[in-house]
Write a structure and sequence with these properties.
Length: about 500
Amino acid sequence: MDSFASLIDGFGTALTPGNLMFAVIGVLLGTAIGVLPGIGPAMAVALLLPVTYGLDPTGAFIMFAGIYYGAMFGGSTTSILLNTPGETAAVVTAIEGNPMAKRGRGAQALATAAIGHFVGGLIGTILLVLLAPTVAKLAVGIGAPDFFAIMLLAFIAVTSVLGKSRVRGFASLLIGLSIGLIGLDQMTGQQRLTFGSLHLSDGIDVVIVAVALFAVGESLWVAAHLRRIQAEPIPVGRPWLGRADFKRSWKPWLRGPVIGFPFGAIPAGGAEIPTFLSYVTEKRLSKHKDEFGKGAIEGVAGPEATASASASGTLVSMLTLGLPTTAVAAVMLAAFQQYGIQPGPLLFERESGLVWGLIASLFIALVLLLVLNLPLAPVWAKLLRIPRPYLYAGILFFASVGAYAVSGDVVDLIVLFVIGLLGLAMRRYGLPVLPAVIGVILGPAAEQQMRRALQISDGSISGLFNTPMSVTLYVIILVIIAWPLVSRAFRRSVPSDPDREKIGV
C-alpha cells in the first residue's frame, strides 16, 4: 500500500500545470520524432539533454518519459504507412501493418497500434509500480562483487543479442569502455588516455558521447544513403476499430505485456526480441493463419502492446539498479548523472518525489497519447513528406549547439564530431551503438566496484565471486557465452535424415 500512497503523491507532482505542460510537450515531440524514419527516442532524448540543463529535474524527466512513450508510439505510424520503421521496436509491426494499409485498412492498423500501446503501457506501468520498490529494497543489500557481476552481465547480454555478430558487439563495447577510461583515475588521480590535454583530464561528458553516437553518427549515415526519390506515404483516414477487429485484438493486447515487460527489465537488448516473440506467438494462436503476411490485425496488436510494456520494464532496472537495458535508458541514465542523481537502490528514498512524479507521469503520458494521437494520425502522416536533407541538417545544427552549451568550449565541438565520425564508421561496419554507450556509462562504475571488491578481499581474485548472488550471475554469464557454441557443436554432431539414409541408418 505504501507504493500506491507514494503514487498518489506522484500524481500531485505530475499534475501541476508546469509538469503537465512538460508531459504534453514530451508526448508531442516524441510522437513526431518517432514518425520520422531514422530518428528514434534515444536520439531525441540525447539532443534535448543539453537543452534541459536549466530545467527542474522532475520536469525534465517527465518530458523525457513522454518522449520515450511517444516515440515508441510514433514509430508504428511510419511502419504501417511507409513500411519504414521510425523506431527499432516497430520493425515487426511493419510485417502486418503495411499490408493492412495497402489493403485500405491503414486506419484500423493505426487504431490497433494506438490502443495496443495504451493497454501494454498501462499494464507495464502498473507492474513498475508494484515491482520497482521491492526490487530497490532487495538491492540495498547488494555488495560490490554483486554489482560488478550485474554490470558484467549487462555488458555480456547486450553485446550478445545486438548486431550481426558477437565480435562486433564486443568491439563496440570495447570502444565504449575505452572512451569511459579517458580522464583522471578516480582512485589514484593519474591521467588516462588524455594525451596530455587538460581539456580531457575531466573525461568526456556522457551527454556529448550520446549526442555524437546517436544524433551525429545517424545523421551522417542517413545523409550518405539518401535516396533521390522518397516513397509516398499511404493516405489515412480517421483511425477506428469495428467490433470484429476489436474481438481479434483484445487477447493479443493482453498477451503482449506478459512477454514485453520481463524482457524490458533484463539486459536483453530492448523491445526487438519480445516483439518478434509476440508476433510468432500470435501467429501460432490465431484462427486466421492464412492472413499472416497479408495484413493480420493480430500481428499489429500483439507486438505493439509488447513494445509499450517493454518500455516500462526498462525503467525497473534503470531506476532500481542503475542498469540501462536499452539505448533510451542509457541516455536517461546520463541525464540523471547530469543532475548529480545516481539511480540505484537508494533512489526511491533520496529522490522519492522525483521518482514517483516520473512514474505518475507515465500514466498521464499514456492517456495523452491515446487522446491526442488517434485524431492526429493524419497530421503525423504528413510529417513523412519533410525532405530528409533539411531534417538531418537541422539535427546536426541542434546537436552542435547542444554540445557547445555543455561547457561553452570549442574542444567539445571537436570531440562531438570526432566521436560522430566514429559512430558513422560503426554503422558502416555493422557495430551496434548501444554497447558502446553502455560501456561509456557503466564502464567507470564497473571498474570502481571491481576495485572496491578487490580491496575488501586484500587483492584476492576470489573477492569477485565470494557471494551466492555473484556466483549465480557468473554461471548465467557462462551460459550466455557458451550456449551458441554448444548448440552449434550439437547440430554438427547430429546428422540430418538424408545423411542417415545414405549411410544406411
